[in-house]
User: What shape does this take?
Amino acid sequence: MYLYSAAGSLFIEDVLLNRIAEKLRISFADQLDRRVSPSELNSWRNSLQSFANVLSHYQLTNVGVVLEMQLPLTSKRLDCLLTGVDESGHPSAVIIELKQWADAEPSSVSDCVVAFVGQAPRDMLHPSQQALQYKQYLEDSSTVFSEGQVRLAACSYLSNHQHSIDSALVASKFNGLLAQVPLFSGDQTHQFGEFLRQRLALGDGLETLKLVSSSKYKASKKLLDHVSQVIKGRSEYVLLDEQQVVFNAVLGLVRGGYHYKQKTVVLVKGGPGTGKTIIALNLMAALSAEGYNVRHATGSRAFTGNLKKILGFRAGEQFSFFNNYITTEYNCVDVLLCDEAHRLRPNSNSRFQKMKSNKRQVDELVFSSKVAVFLIDDLQVVRPGEVGSCELIRSAAVEAGAVLQEFTLDGQFRCAGSEEFIRWVDATLGITNEERIWQPDGQFDFRIFNGVQDMAEAIRNKAANGQSARLVAGFCWPWSNPDSSGQLVDDVKLDGFSMPWNAMPDAGRLAPGIPKSNFWASDPNGIRKVSHDNVVKRAPEGEFANLVKQTYRVLLTRGMKGCYIFFEDTGTKEFVLGRVKTGAASTAEVTQRS
Assistant: This one.
């Protein structure tokens, strides 16, 4: 899907007559069913004017021009794709990332620079890195590029930037990147024009554009082999005991289900720490190695972001979100692994849409895949609007006329294997009706601290000794943006203790050593973070109580070896202590996912 396509001559005319932005605005409203922001509209007017001047000056009027092209199965849109025939007579295309930045500063974040965007300095992906990722994605997922019918190159063009060897954009650490994907400044029009001419000028770009437009989504064999090798190379993804049993059973079912006339829906149920994500990742590796077009999906930006960071941006492009399957073709994915399926939403509509879809999100996922595997814990719903449940998935299977198979995971691989601790947490939070008293079982280190400073020190000592450790807090304090130097503000304050929350998802420039919001749980520097969710606070009273219970259930059972707690509220502390055998103590930490 794209917002605009035309021959180079018509594109140049549309820009000269000042109608290009309006055409894009109308197309945006028709296809995405929402309004364009004023800043994006101005960006189109300004950046496309300079770009059209380059095409006109170098007489690249016979190229094909595509603007705002959406990458398949993602919400990402590349700025511009030009099509034509290169100097050797082969169909060719060029991705161009357009920026209006006048300059940029160094960033402490990998692959980023600091640019003034949205009236504030922000850590932004280097434009050429952005273009490189789009290039890799298309070569991995679009048959016309993966099979070599059309050659693909990429570059970035900063029309307002004047070339300088001192600019952070051309720092030595980007030499390798710029050798693959060059960056052209506004005063490098000759080099930019020559780069495009060599790759596009010898043929009718509209014919090449037809090839690109008719290309189907299909993960390339090279990508699938890469994903398989990356996952298999990580020792923390090794399967144990019943995880291996369920993995083997699901793998066999998926292999067979792919060849059925009917769709297949697989439901894997398991509580916290039973290994659902480990099974999903091993299925990714095994099925990719066998050439199946397999994708992973969740409803969590932080979870998916961390997996992409761990596996690298190329393998990470096979990891998506539940709402990426709104307009996909029937059975476009061989196997879709829907992890954390309790985070499913009623639908994939956004608040920006004028016309809403009546299709359930779960039905979109089943529609898009030959085999859909849902991994779920009904009791991990922690935010308003999450509706994922075993019953919902069963109903979707019936609706689609699919074969349904179910598996259950019982073995506990978190909380030091202490199933008794899990049961005690559920009973204490009122999730079950049992009466249970916690007593140390020699497996799990559970303590209740009298002072928050003592607890924080104990957590830091664990981290200093090479163990993963995090501090988390309830929804009880304000959450501020970083200050002008990128430092976080100490919003959490009690009994002389103070710490900042994690950075907001849309925080601008962050000081060195502060991870972005999505990575606080996996980055070593995340020890300084906590989490805060205003959406939960706005939930209705009855729903709020259940969400809080299930949130604390997730947090209390997330630790691999121990959980330390400090209670600010005396009544809550006394209530919990009443369910703990004398001499046992407690508190909080977690990083590993199920």
Q: What stands out?
A: The chain is about 35% helix and 20% strand. The radius of gyration is 26 Å.
